[in-house]
Specification:
- The protein is α+β, with helices and mostly antiparallel strands.
- The protein has two domains: 34-182 and 284-361, f41 fragment of flagellin, N-terminal domain; 189-279, no CATH class.
- It is built from eight helices and 13 strands.
- A hairpin with a 5-residue loop joins strand 8 (219-225) and strand 9 (231-236).
- The longest helix has 58 residues, at 303-360.
- The protein is rod-shaped, with a radius of gyration of 41 Å.
- The model has no long low-confidence stretch (mean pLDDT 83).
Length: 398
């Protein structure tokens, strides 16, 4: 078979170019740290790496959502803690107001401090979240969610949505639930004196004696003169279980019927009436303070009115404080859930990164060894080409 000089030259150049491309590929792999630079390098590994990259981006988005929820919940939890501290001070002041030695002037100073604390609580409820919204406003139009109107504080926000990160996590809590919807009374029923009552008597918060007998109805306890200088009481409408006729009144003696018991203290007057209504989740923190302030503000208060205001105020304050504690507990649970999800997503991210790395990253030691081998091969190809170049008639004649 005849081999021409041109054929030898062509084959030598092709070999040299192949070795040069292989050496260049090795250089590129070492420089980038990637084994798969183009899908054509390894189609199966490229697909695996692409899927891992998409999953990693999804995990990164979930981690960002988690961090946004964590920051919001942490700031909100701190605000609820601050509100709880202010409410504790409010409760202490109301307790002091029940001191029999308190006169009009000390009580006036106490009421002024209650008003200051109320303003501070309203500021906490309307605290900005640093992102153009409000911690307790949910979705608002840019205005503060809690508006101080003539009839009291009203809520103008809307509950915020949730952000999914495997599970749904809140970006904000419902301010209306936290500040405006505590259970009134003792959680089952509410006791209160009628507005037309004369001074001299007050009623406690009552208690449940037999849950099975509760009817959920509203009642009035009416007092009347027994005709001999004493007083009688009766329940209207007549209870299903309990006395249906007028009963003699004795201060401090429990009045029991239909599975509940209340106690009237002091000296009620004929015609006085005390109301009992089913509890509702409509007690606002601000209304509880406003009613207490209104009850303590007059200078010429009868001791029984002070006692009634203090007892009712403490009952309502305890209810709204329990709601704040419950809200803070839920926030703590959410923060714990966020920490758990953060750990799980971080582990998943490491696993996905390992899958992606195994699919496209280069073994550096192997790549360096292969580079050295290809460099030696390339040097040999250069020498071979230089020898082939000298195998010509013109070179021989010269």
């Amino acid at each position: 078979m005849r081999v021409s000089t041109a054929n030898q030259f062509e084959r030598a150049v092709q070999t040299l170019q192949q070795r040069q491309r292989a050496l260049q590929d090795s250089q590129e792999q070492i420089a980038t740290g990637k084994r798969v630079l183009r899908p054509s390098d390894d189609p199966i590994a490229a697909v695996r790496a692409e899927r891992a990259m998409v999953q990693q981006h999804r995990i990164d988005a979930d981690l960002r959502a988690l961090e946004a929820s964590r920051q919001s919940m942490s700031v909100t939890e701190a605000a609820i803690g601050e509100a709880s501290g202010l409410m504790q001070r409010v409760r202490e002041l109301v307790l002091q107001a029940g001191n029999p030695t308190f006169g009009p002037e000390p009580r006036k100073a106490l009421v002024e401090e209650l008003r200051v604390l109320r303003r501070q609580l309203l500021d906490v409820a309307n605290r900005p979240d640093g992102a153009g919204g409000y911690l307790f406003g949910g979705v608002t139009d840019g205005s503060a969610p809690f508006q101080d109107a003539a009839a009291g504080v009203v809520f103008r926000g809307r509950p915020a949505g949730t952000q999914a990160a495997g599970v749904e996590l809140p970006l904000a809590i419902d301010g209306q639930e936290a500040w405006m919807r505590s259970a009134s009374g003792n959680g089952v029923f509410v006791t209160s004196p009628a507005a037309t009552n004369q001074a001299g008597a007050w009623i406690d918060s009552g208690r449940v004696t037999d849950p099975a007998l509760l009817t959920g109805r509203a009642y009035d306890i009416e007092f009347a003169d027994d005709g001999s200088g004493g007083l009688t009481w009766r329940v209207v409408p007549a209870p299903e279980v309990g006395p249906t006729s007028a009963q003699p009144y004795a201060t401090g003696r429990a009045i029991e019927f239909d599975g509940l018991a209340v106690t009237v203290h002091g000296a009620p007057k004929a015609g006085d009436r005390f109301e009992i209504e089913p509890s509702q989740r409509d007690l606002s923190l601000f209304d509880a303070i406003d009613r207490t302030i209104a009850g303590l503000a007059p200078a010429d208060l009868d001791p029984s009115r002070v006692t009634q205001t203090v007892q009712s105020g403490l009952r309502d304050l305890d209810a709204v404080m329990a709601t704040l504690v419950s809200t803070r507990s839920r926030l703590g649970a959410v923060l714990g859930q966020i920490d758990g999800l953060d750990t799980r997503l971080a582990d998943q991210r490491i696993s996905v990164q390992a899958t992606r790395s195994a699919s496209e990253d280069v073994d550096l030691a192997q790549a360096v060894s292969e580079f050295q081998t290809r460099q030696t091969s390339y040097d040999a190809a250069l020498k071979a080409y230089s020898m082939v170049q000298r195998l010509s008639l013109f070179e021989y004649i010269r």
